[in-house]
Specification:
By secondary structure, the protein is α+β, with helices and mostly antiparallel strands. The chain contains four helices and eleven strands; from the N terminus they run H-H-E-E-E-E-E-E-H-E-E-E-E-E-H.
């Protein structure tokens, strides 16, 4: 079940399906500028699954192409984007899956130059609420696979959450806190070493 939830999160991609208003275009450009301005990011995250279960951990991003989600014990999961693959690890099942990064929503987030009007991306909606902006998209080549929503705070503008709704209409929500932009991250964070993980070495070491 854990594997299906996370693969749903990792198998989406976001040409608008509708005409944008001037205000919506401005919000989309603002989101693109923010995301493309991220060189490195470090944050805590809380993931809430469709069944109500939740997990916490640490998120590391190095754009383009690299990301690591380290789940707090006892959750036996790990995800690593190494620039080519999104690697999902279930330590309990001793199972490792490699997915082409460009076939995942993680690939959308980690693109060197993200554009929500790229031909590979179908923009579904742009919503502005009190202090928030939500941008929902899906992959053009497989719109039935599900949809991804970025949620930004609008004061100051920053990514606070993403939500994934899969083909069965089940939602996974990931909320960020204590976000730090910039700074050097150890390149080893973005390499999956099966021997290291099998020894249980801490990602914070």
């Amino acid at each position: 079940m854990r594997r299906l939830i996370l693969i749903a999160f990792l198998t989406l991609f976001a040409v608008p399906a509708f005409a944008l208003t001037d205000a919506e275009s401005a919000m989309v450009k603002k989101a693109e500028t923010y995301l493309n301005g991220i060189a490195t990011l470090k944050a805590r995250f809380t993931q809430v699954n469709a069944d109500g279960s939740s997990h916490e951990g640490d998120l590391y991003i190095s754009r383009p192409g690299k990301m690591r989600l380290v789940y707090d014990p006892p959750t036996p999961m790990l995800m690593v984007a190494d620039g080519v693959f999104l690697i999902y690890v279930d330590k309990d099942m001793d199972d490792v899956s490699h997915i082409d990064l460009n076939d995942t929503p993680a690939g959308l987030l980690l693109k060197a130059n993200l554009s929500f009007t790229d031909a590979a991306v179908k923009l579904i909606s742009v919503k502005q609420g009190p202090g928030t902006v939500e941008i929902t998209a899906t992959q053009t080549k497989d719109t039935a696979a599900g949809k991804l929503t970025f949620v930004f705070a609008d004061g100051p503008f920053e990514l606070k959450q993403w939500r994934v709704v899969d083909a069965q209409n089940k939602e996974v929500r990931v909320t960020l806190s204590n976000t730090v932009l910039g700074g050097k991250l150890d390149s080893k964070l973005f390499k999956y070493d099966a021997r290291k993980e099998s020894r249980g070495t801490s990602d914070r070491d």
